[in-house]
Amino acid sequence: MLLVTGATGFLGSSVMRAIASGRRDVRILSYDYEAAKTMYPQFDVVKGDITRPQSLKGIGKNVDTIIHLAGIVSYTKPKDELFEINVEGTKNMLEACDASKKIIFASSVSVYGEIPASKGPASENYPTRPANLYGWSKLEAERLIADSGMKYVVLRIAPVYGAGSPQWFRNLSLLEKGFPIPKTRNLTHVAHISNVAQAFALALKPRAEGIYNIADEKPVAFTEFASELVTLLGGRPKLMPGWLVGLGARAKGMKAYLDVLTINRNYDISSAKKQLGYRPKVEFNTELKKMINWYLDMKQKPKEKEI
Predict the structure, then answer these.
(1) Residue 303 pLDDT level (bands cut at 50, 70, 90)
(2) Other C-beta atoms lying within 10 Å of the C-beta of residue 209
(3) What residue spans define the domains of the chain?
(4) 121 Cα distance to chain centroid
(5) DSSP string, 84-124
(6) Is 104 left (phi over 0), alpha (psi -120 to 50) or beta?
(7) CATH says 2-161+190-216+266-281 is which class?
(8) Section 203-209 average pLDDT
(9) CA pair distance 199, 231, nearest whole angstrom
(10) Exposure of 285 by Cβ count < 10 A (0-12 exposed, 13-18 middle, 19+ buried)?
(11) How many Cβ atoms are within 10 Å of 16's Cβ, its own excluded?
């Protein structure tokens, strides 16, 4: 049996579409039982919370493989909250499923920190030096998994974009309101949601094992990326010196968020391509347009905004 956590979120629902067709041997762990049962009436849905070990009793029965997606992505939450969910939650899952043979874990390229232009692209052997607590929480969870004795696939995922992303709803809202774009030579390397879902499907293969970077085929210039989004939103890109944008972001309590968005990113995905058979398939500009259209549509449906 396959156990999936975090199946109702943006990432989880896409992963489920990629892996669940024709399967019946899937168990869904969710703290929102009603939402999960509505989405997946054909599967065994169990109510539970990864931060409450007592709620996980029996969850691992007959489970051969785990896909662990449940977690929190935040660059401003306090350490206690991040570690309770991302680290202790992972520990609780490993203990509840100690008889399982394999775990597939949604990690993050945040474990690397910034990739200087002279050092990229970063392979999986690049030093792990997280620049924020979120990155540290994912790195600690990876270490627990590596020490568990269970076979594992750790997917270090670049920032995910695509229609339906709550995070990108916020990003696009800021850009539409005229938030300035910092002038920078930095690259950004992102991952379309369909590419990420593909990686999880490939990770289910019996021979799949190890740590892999998951991103689109190549990075793009951050300034060009952000400018294209503003243009698609019908605006005119407003570029300003990075230090000035940083001052404005600090005044609004958004400096940490801005830093994460604009750091230099460049990841080597050759191991995933060679060993997993990973093939990024989307056309970047086409998917940006789809995401913009989704955002503009959602703005007209405020009651459906939270997903």
Answers:
(1) low
(2) 16
(3) 2-161+190-216+266-281
(4) 19
(5) IIIIIHHHHHHHHTTT-SEEEEEEEGGGT----TTTPSB-T
(6) beta
(7) alpha beta
(8) 97
(9) 31
(10) exposed
(11) 24
Consecutive H or E run containing 160? strand 160-161
Mean pLDDT of 178-201: 95
pLDDT at residue 300 in the model: 84
Torsion angle in degrees (nearest 10) through CA of 30, 35, 37, 40: -90
Could you tell me the pLDDT band of residue 244, with boundaries at 50, 70 and 90? Answer: confident
Q: Which H or E run contains 155?
A: strand 151-157
pLDDT (mean) for 251-279: 90
What number is the average pLDDT over the span 189-194?
97
Residue 160, beta-bridge partner list: 191
CA dist 185 and 243 (Å) reads 13
**All residues at 6 or more sequence positions from 252 whose CB lies less than 8 Å from its CB, including other chains:** none
CA distance 111 to 134: 8
**183: pLDDT strictly greater than 60:** yes
Predicted TM-score (pTM) of the model is 0.94
CA distances from residue 276 to 59, 145, 198, 280 in whole angstroms, order as listed: 28, 19, 10, 12
Residue 14: what are its φ and ψ, rounded to 5°? Answer: -70, -40
Q: Looking at residue 306, what is its pLDDT? A: 41
